[in-house]
Amino acid sequence: MFSKRGADYDRAGRESALRIVWVYPDLLSTYGDQGNLLILAHRARARGLAVQPLQVRSPDRLPEQADIYLLGGGEDGPQALAAQRLNADGALHRASAAGSVIFAVCAGYQLLGRSFFAKGERHPGLDLLDLHSDRGPSRAVGELAGPVDPRLSLPTLTGFENHGGRTHLGPEVNPLARVTAGVGNDGATEGAFRGAVLGTYAHGPALARNPALADLLLCWATGAGQLAPLDETWTDRLRADRLATLPGG
Ligand code: GLN
User: Hey, where are the domains in the chain?
Assistant: First the structure.
């Protein structure tokens, strides 16, 4: 029996399946980030949890009752449009206030902040994370890695980054990781989290490369203290392969 943010539900109970929403596949889906949805669904089902995945395109209303919302990377124009539509919709703000998990990558991460730059202009973000993004001196492209905040008890973060923006964290968020390879937020830190909202520059897809992070999101969404271990032969190989490409790896 898992407890989903207060409401107990049965492992077999269809009505109370874990609802995972891919936000705006038409705008925010670069670099295979939708793989994050596949990984979460797979790892949840492998633990006997029923999953209801949902893709919501940007002209449509977002549901407010989902357990996990996923946002991916995007080019500047689609990113600005996504932020505008999410602010007008308001459902993501209400879901977050109710405790839903949000996991966002790159453009999706930037737009959760107070503001970001796209196409030479500053755009208002969703203000769900205390951070803002501006433009860096060059595009950050390549492997991204570093040790994660020890409070999250996760192994080294590994991903692939490709962004022009730089992100500056305010006092109300925690950096997700320290950067030992790549740029991340600003060359020193990478990603951010507060409560059940977590953002990263890591593509890859991030949750394929960081299955322990996928499980952390599932724990947050279900209220489970821990999840049954899975066979990690292939994910361990993928991680070892990517980390070995780094200097000193
Ligand atoms: N448009 C943003 C930037 O270049 C995000 C890019 C991305 O999502 N890959 O910073």
Answer: 18-244
Q: Does ligand 1 come within 6 angstroms of the Cβ of 74?
A: yes
CATH 3.40.50.10190 fits 18-244, yes or no: no
User: Is the minimum distance from the CB of 185 to ligand 1 under 6 angstroms?
Assistant: no
- CA angle (53 as vertex; 221, 185 as ends), nearest 5: 60
Closest ligand 1 atom to 106 CA: 8
Residue 127 near ligand 1, beta carbon < 6 Å: no
| Ligand 1, atom nearest to 79 Cα | 1
Beta bridge partners of 68: 20, 101
192, 198 contact by CB (below 8 A): yes
What is the reported pLDDT for 4? Answer: 55
Tell me how far the alpha carbon of residue 153 lies from the centroid of ligand 1, in angstroms.
28
* pLDDT one-digit tens code per residue, 187-196: 999 999 999 9
DSSP string, 86-119: HHHH-HHHHHHHTT-EEEEETHHHHTTSSEEEET
pLDDT band per the 50, 70, 90 thresholds, residue 5: low
Measured in Å, residue 10 CA sits from the centre of ligand 1 at 40
Answer whether 0.85 is exceeded by the pTM: yes
Identify the band that residue 15 occupies on the pLDDT scale cut at 50, 70 and 90: low
pLDDT digits (tens, 9 = 90+) for 214-245: 999 999 999 999 999 999 999 999 999 999 99
From 42, 93, 106, 163, active-site residue: 106
